[in-house]
Amino acid sequence: MTRLHLALALVLPLAAHPVLAGPVPLGDDGLHKPDWLKTSFKDLAEDNQEAADAGRRLLLIVEQRGCIYCARLHNEVLTDPRIDRLIRDRFDVIQIDLFGATELTDTDGEILTEKRAAAKWGVPLTPTLILMPPSLPPDTDVARAAMAVIPGVMDADDTLRVLEWAAAGGPDTGRDIQDLLSR
Known about the structure:
Blueprint: H1 3-16, H2 44-53, E1 57-63, H3 68-77, H4 81-90, E2 91-97, E3 103-105, E4 111-113, H5 114-120, E5 128-131, H6 142-145, E6 148-151, H7 156-167, H8 177-181
Parallel strand pairs: 1-2
Antiparallel strand pairs: 1-5, 3-4, 5-6
Pfam families: Thioredoxin_2
Protein name: Thioredoxin
Keywords: Signal
């Protein structure tokens, strides 16, 4: 094997790995913008129904500008090839800005800003992952309807377990989130 072939054999697999492709780009709002984010009018009941109709789950990610833990989530955890593939295959992801002024429609029908919605839902910190069930109870807001609300950053293996659990039906699997994360 020539030196060039040896060098290519060692370098090409690394170049193809998404984690090494560089940080996830930031948008004008200072939030990370992976290419799998859903473009949405942020009518969350409608977004949830569209995801369910496609056999997918709705995942809300609450973030804020300058959040070092959000950067870690995007650049170290969600870029894990197993998680990236699962998100692309099974989830519609909508980003919520903790301090955002963009209006959204909560699953209970209330129209409010992202900032007011995050406060209403009791989001304690960023990032927070909110996993929605395929069927929403009537007149129920996101926080009460959610299968799970995960504040902070978990490692890739725990994040993968949670996303696989949600994709498989969440509580309908017979396991709750605490059981799932206890080792």
